[in-house]
Amino acid sequence: MDWPLTVTQFLNGVQLGVLLFLLAAGLTLVFGIMDFVNLAHGSLYMIGAFFCATMTLWWGSFPLAVLLTLPATLLVGIVVEVLVVRHLYQREHLDQVLATFGLILVFDTGVHLIWGPEGLTFPLPEVLNGQVTVLPGIEFPIYRLLIIATGLLVAGGLYLVITRTRIGMLIRAGASNRTMVGALGVDIKSLYTLVFAAGAVLAGLAGLMIAPITEASIGMGNDILIVAFVVIIIGGIGSIRGAFLAAMIVGLIDTLGRSFLDDFMKLFLSNQVAETSAPALSAMLIYILMAGILYFRPQGLFPPRGHR
Amino acid sequence: MKIKHLLIPAIALAMSMPAVAADKVKIGFVTTLTTGAGVIGRDMADAVQLALDHIGNKMGGLDVELILEDDGFKPEIGKQKTDKLVKSDDVDFVAGFIWSHVLLASRKSALDAGKFLISSNAGPSPLAGKLCHENFFSTSWQNDQTPMAMGEVLNSKGVKKLYVMAPNYAAGKNMVTGVERTFKGEVVGKDMTKWGKDAQLDFSAELSKAKSSGADGIFVFYPGKAGGAFIKQYEQAGLRGKIPLYSVFTVDSISLPKLQAAKLEGVLGSEMTQFWAPDLDNAQNKKFVSGFKAKYGRYPSFYAAQSYDTIYLIKSAVEAVNGNLDNMDGMRAAMMKADYPSVRGPYSYGKNHFPIQNFYLRKVVVDDEGNWTTKVVDTVYKNHQDTYVGECKL
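^ inputs. structure came back:
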């Protein structure tokens, strides 16, 4: 076994995992607490990427762009919640799916009109553009390490907020039993706005972190949203802890599958067969896992406590 | 009774009569106008519009009506749009098609309806071989050809161990087959990545593998937005200066302005093979490139070049039959001669109606105005024909 490569791929998997977690955290809270299916969550990820790219190209400073993008996506989240989402909480899931699908079209076309179809690319600051030796003989891009660190910090912060603060208590209560929280006189309306906006910021953060690696492009959020849904289904809807662990599992399975499945299959299949079937199979792995989880443990691996 | 007797033959006659000679040429153009790949479709649509401007929107005395359709980067939508073009719009020519899988899904709809089908980009191997058709023409290339030229370049540069990456769909597979056919060294690793609407754009795992594979060259095919993303990650992974990059259809006039805006200078000097370049020295290409830059303020891509040629190829057909669009045989014979000014210079058609043409080695350079573009540095193949023509039964 090639240990340096394995360690590198493990880090790559963790990096994909934390990105998925940032996206899934908002999704799982909104779904779990408000019982609201938000297909347009990926649009906020795209908005984060475009805001950050535009500001970086304007001022030439990535850190400044990051600092300003986060409040900007918060604002977008609040506006979307107040204008559209708020009116859909009482409606059926199908209505919510239709309305938020409409939101995707509005966001995608809006981006097309403002930024054109070509997307935006921007460079990383020189200090983030290199490699760093994490272990003897193992080099890893600094920026990807930074993504891992940021993601873990945010995850830790969310954990503290949710387990140690009053807001967190309300969020947990909301995830366990929404009606009861409302009946106890909690201002559920502003709690909802807060949760939705926080989800938007997390999605925006994920978007702005991936943009320097890929680019800001139309529909980028829709591509990854499917995987984020897989994550929250595996983790248990409404559970931040579940979202984190599931995101790690999915990130690692996807990355390690892409890295090693073809070599593994070559052990007992012909080269030709392994080469053609491995890519298809590695693209399916996380969905196979989801199907298995749905069959054996439909509530997900780590559902919120006391969930119906 | 008498009237009825007269009426029936009259109606039958009226119905069997050929439609009144068409007063315009209808061209249906299918490309991708939405999603991140919409940027390619825009380049193609812009080039078609420029060609129509340059010919005064007239072919053989007839007006031209252009109907643009968006395939949304999906084979099933592309087929639906093709059905709509041939059935409800009753176009004379169906053209366009960026994506091999979209073209393969749509070909039957167009050809079964008895229309000409012209690919302005995609060149999947079945259409050059077993599925070749008398009414299908290409103004681009067969997918394998450009990577085959790259394989020759790799040999001459002394590359011994190659790492190969391409998206997992019809064209990606053709590209890999093409380079493997001519490359004489060893392929030490190969990754086919997820493609389509939820395409994989983060290549961290693959680049890590490439880095530890001991390869002395990496070959990629990443069209559209994936190209820019790949180049950036190739740099971020620290591969530049370690494993040289050889690409096809990845670095083009679509990705270069973005890479330039982001000051990713590592792409300067990188080489690729192509049948065309903005600096090819012929009158038609000069008219096209300068016209495109004047009208749209940017360099045209090869997608644009092929689309521009598509309109001139159709024009040559319509003029050969003096605007009698019912004369399919006449138009087909005219197109097979490729007797029109092409931006790539003169070329001919093989029996499968794919071009027999030159392939060049291009290099990314900075032009006089400081813009990044590509320039021909060498001719790799002269009058190259694809390898599938033998399977074509025409």
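The two ends of chain B are 52 Å apart (CA to CA). The first helix of chain B runs from residue 2 to 16.
thumbs up if we can close this ticket
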